[in-house]
What we know:
Layout: E1 10-13, E2 22-28, E3 31-37, H1 40-57, H2 65-72, E4 74-75, H3 80-95, H4 105-110, H5 119-126, E5 135-136, E6 141-142, H6 155-169, E7 175-179, E8 182-186, E9 195-200, E10 209-215, E11 218-224, E12 229-232, E13 235-238, E14 241-242, E15 247-248, E16 253-260, H7 263-276, H8 278-286, E17 291-297, E18 301-305, E19 312-314, E20 320-324
Parallel strand pairs: 18-20
Antiparallel strand pairs: 1-9, 2-3, 3-7, 4-6, 5-6, 7-8, 8-11, 9-10, 10-19, 11-16, 12-13, 14-15, 16-17, 17-18
The structure holds adenosine monophosphate (AMP) and magnesium ion.
Magnesium ion binds near residues 267, 268 and 270.
Amino acid sequence: MKKIILFLTIIILFLSGCARNTHETVFAMDTVMDLTLNDGDVIDTLTGEIARLENIFSPTRDDSEVSRINAHGGADVLSPDMQNALKKSMGYAAETGGAFDPTLDPLVKLWSHEAVPKRADIADALVKCGYLNIKYDGTRLTLPRGGGLNLGGIAKGYTSDVLKKVLVDNSIKSAILSLGGNVVAHGSRSDGTPWVVGVADPDGGANATLGTLRVSDKFVIASGDYERYFMQDGRRYHHIIDAHSGAPSTSDLREAVIVCEDGAMGDAYSTALFVMGSTRAIEFWRAHNNFEMILVTKNHKVIVSKGLLDSFTLDNGGYSYETCAR
Length: 326
Ligand code: AMP
Ligand code: MG
């Protein structure tokens, strides 16, 4: 049986705390986006920015900037957003040792057919991937032959940063934006209490949570094996690729959630930590002081980093709770 399931990874709870809400749902970047704030004009600006950035980053639109770059094996001139996102992506690729890698398009495409590819095809795609194989001097980008950028692991987080800036520039004090698994909890609810964000239960259906996070002025970003996947011979093949094997990562994790103040970083890290697995992810967290995390393992352990002890509540009896400290 083959199946792809797509649903929101993070659920916003208790929206009633935002008075006189305007709410808009848009389908963009292959996911459902919910924008909630009390200014209709700003919502229009936000949806305009989402559409603009989708035209840059969409891997499925032939006329997007990334598709044109891939079709031409590079580009002499990149748009400012592409430059910015690529620079950030290359930095996160180096920092995570390639666990996050923006050059995996050949592998992502190969695994998008809802069937396990042939070994030879994986080997063939692997040699076209790898962030160390592209040449980028800050202006000019050259891809290896047959190579391609895929910014699906960072595009929504990058977009979150752009939307956050729109909110700040328009003096919006309270808003909550959900871009698939990427949430911008801007300010607090209008009554001054923190936003409440549900953390998805990988075993549950759409909208099932394993706990809640109370946050103000944070990005909450999740990656997991339950977002998009197909089943073959009783095994789950999800959408996050390990650049070493060329196949969906087989770490001990089902979900990695990042809480931080930079959307692009959180998006890159959530993808990377999911690939790294819990041991390397904890080491990575210990070496950084710019994010907190929740890791959900295949054996139903929820590992919560120390900075979230006061803001996360586990309320699902199917999971055990562990904390990690520096
Ligand atoms: P996310 O949901 O943010 O974890 O991103 C997953 C998406 O990023 C996939 O659908 C691919 O488009 C792309 N991707 C898959 N594996 C990786 C990886 N190891 N590093 C960066 N991007 C990836
Ligand atoms: Mg990501």
